[in-house]
Design goal:
This protein has 143 residues and is mainly α. Helix content is 65%, strand content 4%. The protein has one domain (16-135).
Length: 143
Amino acid sequence: MSQDAVDIAPEKPVLPRIIIAGLVYVGLAMSFNATSLILRLNGEVPLAPTALVKATILFAVYLAVLFAGWRGYDRTYRIGMALFVLVLPVIGIIPHVQRGFLPDLYHSQVSWAGAIAINSFGITVSAIGAIIGARRTSTVRGR
């Protein structure tokens, strides 16, 4: 059989691990916020007092920045991640720490700590992404 007759399958898309970590952050945060919304709709105290519309818009922008990094727009990705490093502490950590655990605002002490932990993870992922970019990291091939 000649080399020309061999059908070569196209290479599967490559997803950098830093992009995967960003997707994990968004998934955790949106799941946390969705659970808060369900609790609120059932008349219970939410996991954390989050402005859900603003948070959803923020995560849509975050996903757009992740997409830019995946598509090879590394400068856009790095700048976007650097901006999130500045924004996330102000909206996702400092308010929780300043107010402390309040039973009227947080479902439990664990959910108060969880809000801080999830956003700390997001800041870490964003900082790493801003420093190393999306294309210079090890990758995972889709199957």
